Amino acid sequence: MASPLIKKLATTSLVFIFLVILAGSVVRATGSGMGCPDWPQCFGYNIPPSDIETLTWRPGKSFEEGQMILLDNKFWVATGDIVTAEVFEQSNWSVFDRHEYTIFNPVHTWIEFINRLIGALSGLPILLMTVIAFIQIRKSTWNAILSFGVLFLLGFEAWLGKLVVDGNLVPNQITIHMMGSVAIVLLLLALRARNDEGSQELPKSILRVLVALLVAVVVQIFLGTQTRELVDAAVDHGVTDRLEIIPSIGEAMPRIHRSFAWIVIILTSVLFYLRRVKAVVIPGFSALVFAIGLEWAIGVVLYFLGLPKAMQPVHLVLSIGILASISYPLFLALRKS
Question: I want to staple 133 with a disulfide (CB 3.0 to 4.6 A). Which of 78, 106, 147, 241 is the partner?
């Protein structure tokens, strides 16, 4: 049985998850991933510092347990609530040794903090949706299962985010982090489709192509994330000329990523042909075609113009939009069948 409230909460959750993905992409494009060296707080504060003075030790200054200072190129953590004496007493502090990152950049700090804040806020409608789904479990078991799946994945993403920070942006964990977000989007779309009053019937041939296109887009997102990790590694190793980044990481992964884009275009062309032959309406299909064309154009710009930072978040968020445009009519049709 469809639940309008579950549908509204799923829609709200989708908006928040898109914002989380956008914020995460901005974090990566600006290199702000370690703007907060600890987790879930930021330098031990609920509201992060805006200037180095907050992290500077001086006599007569109050610190609460867990708050951090930057001294002698190390982060130190207060072991208790203290008021500093005339000299630095090391017994009141412990070296922050989860990683060796010791840079304070207020811009990076606030970009990362906003990313975390949006992520935390996204949990509110998802938690409420899960509670309501279990209250209404006799009406729809699937609502409860899908809602719990979203909540579980969100918790997993939060835990993995902590590991990513503690490991100073461990590469493979970043890819898993991104694919977890993709899984959350798909589950929310499936949940929204289950509670949509509308219906969508599509021929089996179109359903097969939609499934193939959905799989291709998920794989393409994975390949793009892998390519992005190689780019980050090149920058970390001192490649400063952005036009030299792609050549420095080798052609293998970028070539696979570019080549797979043609599979997406071919499947979209097949879908366009079948749609005309079968004379069926696929909701949002025109927008999907436009988005895929725009995504391809942005990919060309990224490759030939040295990965402009402003285009990277657009490239990622647009790919998630394409994923949603494919999967929602597919989920509607599968529910109908």
Answer: 147
The Cα–Cα gap between 62 and 83 comes to 4
Biggest alpha carbon–alpha carbon distance for the chain: 83
* 134 contact partners, CB below 8 Å, separation of at least 6: 144, 147, 148
Tokens coding 237: 């190793």
Q: Does the pLDDT of residue 337 top 70, yes or no?
A: no
Cα R_g (the chain), whole angstroms: 23
Closest of 54, 49, 57, 52 to residue 84, by C-alpha: 57
Dig out the tokens for 221 from the structure.
């997102």
Average pLDDT over residues 196-224: 88
Beta bridge mates, 93? 78
The 10s digit of each residue's pLDDT in 119-135 is: 999 999 999 999 999 99
Residue 290: both structure tokens together: 């436009």
Q: Where are the domains of the chain?
A: 1-35+105-197, 52-95, 198-337
Nearest CA-CA partner of 264 in 243, 240, 295: 295
CB within 8 A of 146, min separation 6: which ones?
Answer: 133, 187, 190, 191, 194
Can the peptide bond before residue 49 be classed as cis, meaning omega within 30 degrees of 0?
no
Closest CA relative to residue 184, chosen from 116, 260, 264, 130 = 130
Q: What is the pLDDT of residue 169?
A: 60
Flag whether pLDDT at 233 surpasses 90. Answer: no
Query: Six-digit token pair at 106?
Result: 């207020």
